[in-house]
Amino acid sequence: MKSLWDDREARSFGRSALKQRVYTSRLLGRNPELVLHGGGNTSVKAATKDFYGEKTDVLYVKGSGWDLATIEAEGFAPVRMEALLQMAEMEELSDSDMVLQQRAAMLNPNAPNPSIEAILHAILPPKFVDHTHANAVVALTNNKDGKKHVEDVYGDRMLVIPYVMPGFILSREVYKRIRKADFSKLDGLILMNHGIFTFHDDARESYELMIKMVSKAERHIRKLRKGSAPPTAKPLEDLPGLAEIRRQVSALRGCPVYARLNASPEACGFSKLRNVASIATRGPLTPDHVIRTKRVPVVLDSDKAVDKFAADYAAYFRRNTDGKLTMLDPAPRWAVWPGHGTISFGATLQEARIIEDITTHTFRTIETVEKAFKGWKALPEKRIFEIEYWELEQAKLRKAGGTKPAHQGKVAIVTGSAAGIGFACAAALAGQGAKVVGVDLSPEIVKVMEGIGGVGMVVNLTQDDQVVDAVEETVRRFGGLDVVVSNAGIFTAGAYLEDLEQSNWDKSMAVNLTSHQKLLKYTIPYLKKGIEPAVVLVGSRNVNAPGAGAASYSCAKAGLTQLCRVAALELAPHGVRCNIIHPDAVFDTKLWTPEALKRSAERYGLTIEEYKTRNLMKTEIKSRDVGRMVAAMASPLFAKTTGAQIPIDGGNDRVI
After folding, report:
1. pLDDT for residue 594
2. Gap between the terminal Cα atoms of the chain
3. Domains (ranges, CATH) in the chain?
């Protein structure tokens, strides 16, 4: 591990102690081998003036919710040192009261909550204190001879603290052990099964001590591994299997989840280890990870593995609860899928990505310990349970609530979504929490979907292989498929039947009917494994009120309506709903240029405004109106409706 310190970059942050603290904190955060997603914490002690101009000694400590990789000065909570040191003298203090009193001692009430380890930072004399959960140090401690290996690597330069639960108890334990310590002879602390602290009166020295100490652990591990490389393997792909796993996990969690498959050679190699079911289920790298990952993953070695995980989790809860706790959902947060890799589950894509990062470092470190130390050993389950069901976490659970977006955690495909109605549908679904894959012939689809946090794919929906690729890539990315909005279409040039060119008819049928049939064919197997699965087809007012000269368009849309009815009949036994919407006179699309709109209005002897509102309600129908309706039809609002035809036309006398 190398120091990332750069003199020029350091100067750009400024010379104050807090600004240097920001810089070195970011250096730590840049290295995922040290900290991941909010892990670790840093601090600096400084004298400042309070609101009344009184000189005050303050600990600026990383605030809750901030990530070291991106932290700013306002991410450090300013806490009065006097209050922290007073708390350190107390024999007993609940973590809830500790958090309350730390907040009461802040100079700025708008700052984030101080780290739960603020007292520990305060009692260490040096000005700068750095704490990480470095993989190499955790590997050094999480084995049957952990203390011996720590002593072999560091001698007496690091004070070794046996595992104690983070929070006030840990602070008190360290406080007792450092009273007689000579800090001129110490480079830091090793917290067994937890992490490492380094400290110094200079920001750079404290940071580079961290790099130096972790590097020592890395060298020791490399020596014991004797150059052996991690195992790798080619992945087996089973996308229907992935969708089924996601469905089962979502049911246990009580909400749709994303399932991110890590099918890298490294993940597949780990998943195929002979003893993977044993080593993967001994516990997390550090107890902090349990909040995100639960204590162990599910090992998908049978069809009943997810159900068994839930039963085992309930038993784990019963073994360790004091009878006053509320059990969390029993759904796994990650999985080892032998031969396929690992899977991370999240109610949001961000959660799934964070868990994927943590679990990737977890299985790498487990494999390292197995190879170098001949035996991965995590903390006993009781210790992990204490963190998972910490009073502070239970308090968060009691405060949690509120209504979630209708499509949170769902995966949707929307066709013809580069503009107009298709884009409005995609935007409405994305706005309600779904991850949307937009497909279109236009290359603009990629950029357009990025704008709503979705994925754009250039696809010709009349080509089977391209449709299959798009559907499979969607499942590969997100784990399944829940909503299909089949909107792609064209309006072929009007012509009376006797003058209708065959190519006009054939093209309309291919795009406005057959492409929808192809999409259904290839998405249905995944929709059957979806969460509250729904199909919404975009038809036309022409189905119920056709016009002369529009045979190719009207007949294709009529066929699409019949396709919807048949699909509703076939899919209802599988819990998949299929409905169709019939919009009319939607003029805010690329099809309707100002010139075209003006010509059409003049043909009817109307002004443009009159033409746009020529319905019973005298209201204009816009793309976003259609998008909102489609999102509603795909949501639980229409959970009891299938095979329906819904007009969105402001009321049409010919249809009514």
Report:
1. 86
2. 74
3. 7-225 (3.40.225.10), 239-399 (3.40.225), 411-586+621-648 (3.40.50.720)
